[in-house]
Amino acid sequence: MIPTFITSRLCVRPVCATDIPAWHRHFNCYEIIGELASSVPWPFPADGTEQFVRNKILPNQGHDRWTWAICLKELPNELIGVIDLWREGSPENRGFWLAREFWGRGYMSEATYPVTDFAFQDLGFEKLIFNNALGNDKSRRVKERVGATHIGTVPKLFVNPDYTQAEIWELTRQNWERYKQHTTALYEYSVSKPPYPD
Ligand SMILES: CC(C)(COP(=O)(O)OP(=O)(O)OC[C@H]1O[C@@H](n2cnc3c(N)ncnc32)[C@H](O)[C@@H]1OP(=O)(O)O)[C@@H](O)C(=O)NCCC(=O)NCCS
User: Fold this and answer.
1) Distance in angstroms (rounded) separating the CA atoms of residues 70 and 13
2) Cα–Cα distance, 167 to 26 (Å, whole number)
3) 151 within some domain
4) Ligand 1 within 6 A of CB of 112
5) Is 111 in the pocket of ligand 1 (CB under 6 A)?
6) Distance from residue 103's CA to the centre of ligand 1 (Å)
7) Number of separate domains in the chain
8) What confidence tens digit (pLDDT) does each residue in 95-131 have?
9) Does the global pTM surpass 0.85?
């Protein structure tokens, strides 16, 4: 079972089929999709979210992929972003995006905290690999904040053709534990069973 995390301001719960309309509405935005790998189509097809969630996310939930909807705590049924982990790195093990109107409030950093704990404590990862387009400074800062180490830059194509390289990051279990010792109460969270349909 994939847990639901209640953080200071968020409910981070497993994605379900009823999230598809909100996912599509928020995700279908060049400021988000432009930052992603060129395998994501742009313009984004009308059934793109439906196909992705039903074919790639839901069948793999809890097997080799763990995908959470990020919601405000007071609106736990309304997806405003997504964070997911996958076992087989490509080379990265995590992806995320947040609806444009919710940027700049610390929500993504807050959502990454319990998910990262889950990866190390429950899934047994020894390290997590992240990436972002060289130039995607907002994504870069989410990694820097928790003590991830920049380990290289490689050629990669993104939807935004101005990006031609990806920064690769590593977060070891040891560095994560070290970061947690110095973090603030903002990142405290509780775990609950999901009261949502699968
Ligand atoms: C990557 C992405 C999720 C980052 O969003 P974000 O809002 O910048 O990140 P956070 O939610 O963690 O917010 C951090 C910002 O909020 C600010 N902030 C405001 N109030 C805050 C609070 N109470 N607590 C923490 N930070 C707060 C921080 O100072 C920080 O701003 P800064 O980066 O200018 O210093 C978002 O830009 C996005 O969805 N991009 C498109 C998709 C994408 O790039 N995905 C990743 C591909 S690798």
Assistant:
1) 7
2) 25
3) yes
4) no
5) no
6) 5
7) 1
8) 999 999 999 999 999 999 999 999 999 999 999 999 9
9) yes
